[in-house]
């Protein structure tokens, strides 16, 4: 029976690039790998076919020979150059070359079944932890120190993290005999996995610690004083080295990351290192001008309002914003004035405003002349 074209086997065109060829092989190899199709002889044969096709087409010289002579290029006595002695490589050799690793099992390659072991000491770094803390805007501006409390796996005080009862020792793991791995057979290939008894250490404690039951770690409540620097914002992270979970088997502890959340303020809105606020002013002050006191995070500040100030005008107070977390330079405070119009007038107040309207011509032209000129084209 004629062999299937290698390009068709992999589902690619004859001008396929090296990268796309590799992607096509990866997809097919995963689809037909024996681990995903246990007992399926047809899938097993397809796995061998796609591996054979990739073995030829990935090599520039072999691909050129195949493009010219077809399968005859690798047949004994064929028209083209002969293939390697003994035919093509083991399909699992090709699979390992593309996916990496040393095992024959697809689960071993992708999920780390062969990791660890080898009689190592099994030391592993502890996990990092996250703690979210909420502070006020004023605290973010001046900096603050907070005491936090959290649960974590800490080194056992009884065995000092060794997992062994004081006076006992570590012995060779009887399950893996010190290898840290166990091997099982699956048909024509083998699977290596981390030893479930010693977790890849190769050794076990002779007598487990009675407090932590051999784990070397216990769940405890930890307290820590955290200094929050001035200028932090929501999303800022502080790292406390070594205050995460304790390591395993003498490994280093992880770190603790404190994530900052700054509460909304009733007056100020933060815009980077600048602060923004809106201040209501009387319409008489806006018309006549004057000085008002405005709130800032560091106390009150005087703000001069020029005569004729319009509602929505924004003033800038230099250096009254948030301190720069990295630059150290403070931002500014932006103050937008909102002119208040009185809603309740006494008879005397109303009469005086009417006299003002007549004197200024507002009664005849209630809309500003400039706006009226612009709006004429719509009428």
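Sequence proposed for the structure above (379 residues):
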């Amino acid at each position: 029976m004629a062999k299937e074209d290698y390009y068709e086997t992999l589902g690619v065109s004859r001008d396929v690039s090296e990268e796309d060829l590799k992607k096509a092989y990866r997809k097919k190899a995963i689809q037909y790998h024996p681990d995903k199709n246990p007992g399926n002889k047809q899938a097993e044969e397809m796995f061998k076919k796609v591996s054979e096709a990739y073995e030829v087409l990935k090599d520039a010289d072999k691909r050129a020979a195949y493009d010219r002579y077809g399968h005859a290029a690798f047949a004994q006595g064929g028209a083209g150059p002969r293939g390697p002695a003994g035919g093509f490589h083991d399909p699992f050799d090709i699979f390992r070359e593309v996916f990496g690793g040393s095992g024959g099992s697809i689960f071993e390659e992708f999920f780390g079944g062969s990791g660890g072991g080898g009689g190592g000491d099994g030391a592993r770094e502890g996990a990092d932890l996250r703690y979210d803390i909420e502070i006020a805007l004023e605290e973010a501006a001046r900096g603050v120190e907070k005491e936090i409390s959290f649960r974590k796996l800490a080194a056992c005080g009884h065995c000092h993290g060794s997992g062994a009862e004081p006076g006992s020792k570590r012995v060779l793991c009887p399950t893996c005999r010190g290898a840290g791995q166990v091997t099982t057979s699956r048909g024509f290939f083998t699977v290596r996995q981390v030893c479930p008894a010693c977790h890849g250490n190769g050794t076990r404690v002779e007598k487990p610690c009675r407090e932590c039951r051999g784990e070397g770690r216990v769940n405890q409540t930890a307290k820590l004083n955290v200094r929050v620097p001035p200028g932090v914002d929501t999303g800022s992270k502080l790292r406390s080295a070594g205050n995460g979970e304790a390591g395993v088997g003498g490994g280093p502890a992880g770190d603790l990351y404190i994530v900052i959340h700054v509460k909304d303020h009733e007056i100020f809105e933060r815009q980077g290192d600048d602060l923004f606020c809106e201040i209501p002013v009387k319409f008489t002050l806006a018309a006549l001008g004057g000085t008002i006191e405005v709130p800032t995070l560091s106390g009150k500040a005087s703000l001069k309002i020029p005569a004729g100030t319009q509602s929505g005008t924004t003033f800038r107070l230099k250096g009254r914003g948030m301190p720069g977390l990295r630059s150290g330079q403070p931002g500014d405070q932006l103050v937008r004035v909102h002119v208040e119009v009185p809603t309740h007038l006494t008879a005397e107040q109303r009469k005086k405003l009417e006299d003002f309207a007549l004197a200024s011509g507002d009664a005849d032209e209630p809309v500003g002349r400039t706006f009226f000129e612009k709006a004429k084209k719509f009428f």
